[in-house]
Write a structure and sequence with these properties.
The structure is a single chain. This protein is an alpha+beta fold. It folds into two domains: 294 residues, no CATH class; 87 residues, Thrombin, subunit H. 18% of the residues lie in helices and 29% in strands. It has nine helices and 24 strands. The strands form six sheets. Strands 2, 11, 20, 21, 22 and 23 form a six-stranded mixed beta sheet that branches. It is elongated.
Amino acid sequence: MTPSSVTAVYSDAYVSTFDIHKPSIRNILFRKYGNQGFGFFHVLDTLGYREAVDQTAYSHFEEDWIHQTFSSRNAVASPGAGNPILITLAAADLDSSNRFFVQVNDDVMFNNQVTGHVTAINVAVPSAPVVTIYPHQSTDNIGAVAAGDTMIIYSDAWAEGTAQPAGHVNIPIKYTFNCKITKVTNEATGSEMTNRIWVDYMSDGQKLGAWFWKGQYDADYEMAARIDGALMFDRPTTNAALVALEQRTTFGLVPWVRSGGNVDTYTPGFYSIVDFDSTNETLDANFAPNEMLELLGISANIEISNLFTNSFDAGSIVYASFKEGKKAVDLNIDFSSFSKNGRTWHFKRMDSFNHPKFYGAPGFNFRNMMVMTPMDKQRDADPSGKGNMIPSIGMRYKALGDYNRQMKVWKTGGAKASTNQTDKDEMNQRTEFGSEYIASNRFFLTEAL
């Protein structure tokens, strides 16, 4: 039998064998990666760019160009002064029924600023109409035309007593988006739910009563991360194998811009004011609004910061088109703003583009990406004139009546919950959401060569 008391000196080495010492453990869980944050979902959420939708697929129509140009299918030699030129329309100028925009009696201009008049259009070969154009002045030479050269129609002219021309029909473009379902679950057994831990809270102030509470914070983070990723990078599902499994994805911002917007490249470390102005000119040509949001990878953010050193207003510009005239500091979103050539830019660094476990992982090059989105709103058609203002970037979620699937959170299990006989609980999260972006021609994406 071991005696309960012996002759000895109380020492750390000896007493520690009794396992009686209380461990010296800080009651703080340090977040060495910060909040491991995201950006785009939180931007849309904070700005309130969310709207319910009552179908899994939803669409909108966009007006195409009302007026058209036309191009030459082939190279044509110089006809000489006063002589006509015969232009075969490019295939892109014809629709599926071989209809086209240019008409007899249109006045056109060539890229050398010589003007002329359309006197005839030969449709003997319906898929290759030939347009005859005489220069207005007998001394003008239209000159050689290269394959792909564009002509503009700037007016028309008619003789007295003539009939009216045929009409034009503007064909709208339909864009369809889908809601997708995203789910996350946090599980804990009844025993673990009653185990106390040393750390009481995290270094950002979030309280921790048990370790499964940390699991719930993690689940919240995972849900936000997956929504953020879908809104930024999802591609619509068209693969028959996945469609058969009833898989649905939405349309991410980056693929959306690539599908019909403006895309350019730059050499890292050499982004210049000329590059910036060129982007601005392209957006002007596409009638982009005077307020743009620019989402930046960290390297791209450095390029912009170096370009406009000491020019930014951190939250001092009023974001009237964002939310009720509030400033960025009021919205708790870290924007920097800058105005140039009549356009205001709101710059937002995208931490996820540099996240080593997401888009900053080895081999991925989103650090140098710049994604520019319009920040204007269009009024929804409403005969009363009270239609909602629709943003150019937004998030939709399924809802009908008093039931919406923007975010469903519920508990199941047989520990603290009482839905089954299993001694564990699950905290479940589910959302059904999608993106909606309007007029891709007003978006711009710049990336590294």
